[in-house]
Design goal:
Chain A: Pfam families: Band_7. Chain A: It is a single-pass membrane protein. The complex is a heterodimer of chains A (about 300) and B (about 140). In chain A, helix 3 crosses helix 5 and helix 7 packs across helix 8. In chain A, the strands form three sheets. Chain A has a three-stranded antiparallel β-sheet. Helices cover about 60% and strands about 20% of the residues of chain A. Chain A has about 300 residues and is an alpha+beta fold. The N and C termini of chain A lie far apart (about 205 Å). By secondary structure, chain B is α+β, with helices and mostly antiparallel strands. Chain B folds into two domains: about 70 residues, no CATH class; about 55 residues, OB fold (Dihydrolipoamide Acetyltransferase, E2P). Chain B has a five-stranded mixed barrel with strand order 1-2-3-5-4. The radius of gyration of chain B is 28 Å and the shape is rod-shaped. The chains are: A alpha+beta (about 300), B alpha+beta (about 140). At the A-B interface, helix 1, helix 5 and strand 8 of A face helix 3 and strand 3 of B.
Chain lengths: ~300, ~140
């Protein structure tokens, strides 16, 4: 009888001791309740609680924790449906608030994050939401952080892991990109051809201009030559005319006769010329020969007379 | 040889072993209580079992109180006092204000997280030093 009582006593004593001496591990904080009402928070280490009156309420994890945000369908501003998932890093800073201000902390955080992601992406076009991920992260982080302050937690980081547009949209985006590249290629090619044609035409123009310029120069020079020739002829004529005016008109007949004889001589010397046609006016020329004779006679006569 | 002497010796050893297996710093003190009961039982024969148990329970509480009063004062302080206390770890940091302090409240960014700060009126971009924290809000002063 006594030994049973002793066993019960030892057992009760050990149980009460276990309830009195509480060791809070590092990384956790325990809330203490006095008859069910929160009184204080136990930090890591060994603590003594007055048995039965005080009890441990919640054991709160004070380490930074990671929550997976499950994939959800979000509609962008331009009505594309994208699948979005992410991760949230949060840490409890106030164990009592985290324990008693919110019923299921993780569910509450997840729902807040999900609705805020929907809000942030819903205000953006698909292209924007794909390229401005950092902006979305920051936006959601600020909103969620502020909303969770009353729960004694700090949301340190929210990261969208994947923003996936539907498959057909991805395909058409790829097609669009390809078309864009092809367009650029075609434009570049056309520009190349245009440039080449322009260069070629310019070359041709240049060559034509140069040629024309050459011709012009040549014409100028030819004209100049003719002018000079005419001048010379005029001068020669002048000289002859002067000579005639100061001498006898018959003198001219001398030149004509000389030229005629020369021409006749070359005609006669030509190898295949057996047959000579006499000009119709040869009689005139002969006449001029007579003139020469007369001229000579006159000159000689003058000399003799003088 | 009496069985109760052996029993208390065994209980004491078991408690020491338990402390060694799962250190919680209080099985040890139960063990010391068991050692004292063992000594008493060894010296004075004829103590009723119920009285032995009562002595053990009382001594257990006493030994833990002794530990609490006496030895805890000599405990080595942690070399990481700010472990798991994020706001305490931020004290002394100098950071630029992300949002101006207007009506006592502004915002800074430390690592990826945004912290609400309270302090004197300062424009955005001004350097501030964290001096402490009120719950989730950091106290800052111009640095």
């Amino acid at each position: 009888m006594g030994s049973i009582l002793a066993l019960v006593l030892v057992f009760a004593g050990i149980v009460i001791l276990f309830k009195t001496v509480r060791m809070v591990p590092q990384g956790y904080e325990w809330t203490v309740e006095r008859f069910g009402k929160y009184t204080q928070t136990l930090t890591p280490g060994l603590h003594f609680l007055f048995p039965i009156v005080y009890g441990v309420g919640r054991k709160v994890n004070m380490m930074e924790q990671v929550l997976e945000v499950p994939s959800q369908d979000v509609i962008t501003k331009d009505n594309a449906v994208v699948k979005v998932d992410g991760i949230v890093f949060f840490q409890v800073l106030d164990a009592a608030k985290a324990a008693y201000e919110v019923a299921t902390l993780e569910v509450a955080i997840l729902n807040l994050v999900m609705t805020n992601i929907r809000t942030a992406i819903g205000s953006m076009d698909l292209d924007e939401s794909l390229s401005k991920r950092d902006e979305i992260n920051a936006k959601v982080l600020v909103a969620v952080d502020q909303a969770t302050h009353p729960w004694g937690i700090k949301v340190n980081r929210i990261e969208l892991k994947d923003i996936a547009p539907p498959r057909d949209l991805v395909e058409s985006m790829a097609r669009q990109m390809k078309a864009e590249r092809e367009k650029r290629a075609n434009i570049l090619e056309a520009e190349g051809f245009r440039q080449a044609a322009i260069l070629k035409a310019e070359g041709e123009k240049q060559s034509v201009i140069l040629e024309a310029e050459g011709n012009r120069e040549a014409a100028f020079r030819a004209a100049e030559a003719r002018e000079r020739q005419a001048e010379a002829e005029a001068k020669a004529t002048q000289l002859v005319s002067d000579a005639i005016s100061s001498g006898n008109v018959q003198a001219i007949n001398y030149f004509v006769a000389q030229k005629y004889i020369e021409a006749f001589k070359s005609l006669a010397e030509a190898p295949n010329q057996k047959f000579v046609m006499m000009p119709m006016e040869s009689a005139g020329v002969i006449g001029s020969l007579a003139g020469i004779a007369e001229l000579t006679k006159e000159t000689l006569g003058k000399k003799a007379g003088g | 040889m009496r069985w109760d002497v052996f029993a208390w010796a065994a209980i004491a050893l078991l408690l020491f072993a338990a402390e060694a297996m799962a250190p919680g710093a209080f099985m040890l003190w139960l063990g010391f209580a068991a050692v004292v009961v063992f000594a008493i039982v060894l010296l004075f024969s004829g103590i009723p079992v119920l009285a032995q148990a009562a002595i053990f329970v009382v001594l257990s509480f006493v030994s833990i109180q002794v530990y609490r009063r006496w030895f805890r004062k000599r405990e080595k302080p942690s070399d990481q006092p700010a472990l798991n206390r994020r706001t305490a770890a931020l004290v002394g940091r100098v950071v630029p204000l992300e949002r101006a302090i207007v009506d006592g409240y502004g915002r800074v960014q430390i690592a990826d997280a945004f912290w609400e700060v309270t302090g004197p009126q300062l424009p955005a971009g001004a350097q501030v030093r964290v001096t402490g924290a009120d719950g989730m809000t950091l106290r800052v002063e111009a640095a």
